[in-house]
């Protein structure tokens, strides 16, 4: 399915009817083929859309209304079940079309491996790109039990293919000893445990650079987001993640795309995880999408 063919399913609140005048395209990547613990994130995109119906269209944080942003929800990419390699190729082709039309790609995951083909597209477009990675996990493995296509590998792939000095990770509190050693030796930036404070310190150094932001919902403590495949105790609050989103919005960096991944609604009957995710998406639309 192409994003310009329209979509008849659930859409994020206040989505435009057509893509032509949209500054941003929301799209889903319903893939959880390589998860190492609990599957279910392929159902995340639609639950985020459904939860958005309960949102107010106005953000008191940014004093903006969703009617001020032109965005189109194109629905989910119809990824082939179980085929990781082909799925990644389809995501890459899809995002390339969005970028070629000068629109802001805003992806909903899906497991974190879905970000890798997006990184490829964005670095081709912006060779001086910086990646802001907000996550509980380092995602710096070379492989997971022999599989190089794994949701534990996308940040390592960025470091090795596009330069570790272009990667800025925040909130990290889980990984192999070797991953933390690699982070120390490679030249990437890693802030452990916290997000908002270290991010605010780094943002001035990224002034005027194109930036892609990838957010794994498991950066939140399970008390705030139990609906994720690999929950990790000791995380940040929803308030701190909102502070980080707003810090980016008010900075001089140029956000050129973003994704939010790893919402697995089956593990959260309270629905607090998709509810939080939908609010983060609202704030991203209002704070990061520029004409």
UniProtKB/TrEMBL annotation:
CDD domains: Agmatinase-like_2 (cd11593)
Keywords: Hydrolase, Metal-binding
PROSITE patterns named in the record: ARGINASE_1, ARGINASE_2
Top-level taxon: Bacteria
Parts forming coiled coils: none
One Pfam family it belongs to: Arginase
Keyword flag Cell inner membrane: no
GO molecular function: agmatinase activity
Enzyme Commission numbers on file: 3.5.3.11
Family: Belongs to the arginase family. Agmatinase subfamily.
The protein's name in its UniProt record: Agmatinase
Lineage, top ranks: Bacteria, Bacillati, Bacillota, Bacilli, Bacillales
């Amino acid at each position: 399915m192409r994003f310009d063919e329209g979509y008849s399913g659930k859409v994020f609140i206040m989505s435009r009817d057509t893509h032509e005048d949209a500054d941003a395209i929301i799209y889903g990547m319903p893939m959880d083929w390589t998860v190492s613990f609990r599957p279910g994130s392929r159902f995340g995109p639609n639950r985020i859309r459904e939860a958005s119906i309960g949102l107010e269209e106005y953000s008191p944080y940014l004093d903006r209304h969703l009617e001020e942003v032109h965005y189109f929800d194109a629905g989910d990419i119809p990824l082939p079940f179980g085929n990781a390699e082909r799925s990644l190729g389809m995501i890459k082709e899809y995002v390339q079309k969005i970028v070629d039309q000068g629109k802001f790609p805003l992806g909903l995951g899906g497991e974190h491996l879905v970000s890798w083909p997006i990184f490829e597209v964005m670095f081709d477009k912006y060779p001086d790109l910086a990646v802001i990675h907000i996550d509980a996990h380092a995602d710096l493995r070379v492989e997971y039990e022999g599989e190089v296509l794994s949701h534990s590998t996308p940040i390592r792939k960025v470091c090795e293919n596009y330069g570790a000095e272009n990667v800025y990770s925040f909130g990290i509190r889980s990984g192999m000893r070797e991953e933390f050693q690699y982070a120390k030796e490679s030249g990437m930036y890693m802030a452990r445990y916290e997000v908002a404070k270290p991010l605010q310190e780094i943002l001035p150094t990224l002034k005027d650079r194109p930036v892609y932001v990838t957010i794994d919902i498991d950066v939140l403590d399970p008390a705030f987001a139990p609906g994720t495949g690999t929950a990790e105790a000791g995380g940040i609050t929803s308030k701190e993640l909102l502070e980080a989103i707003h810090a980016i919005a008010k900075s001089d960096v140029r956000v050129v795309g973003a994704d939010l991944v790893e919402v697995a609604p089956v593990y959260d009957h309270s629905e607090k995880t998709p509810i939080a995710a939908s609010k983060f998406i609202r704030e991203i639309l209002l704070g990061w999408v520029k004409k």
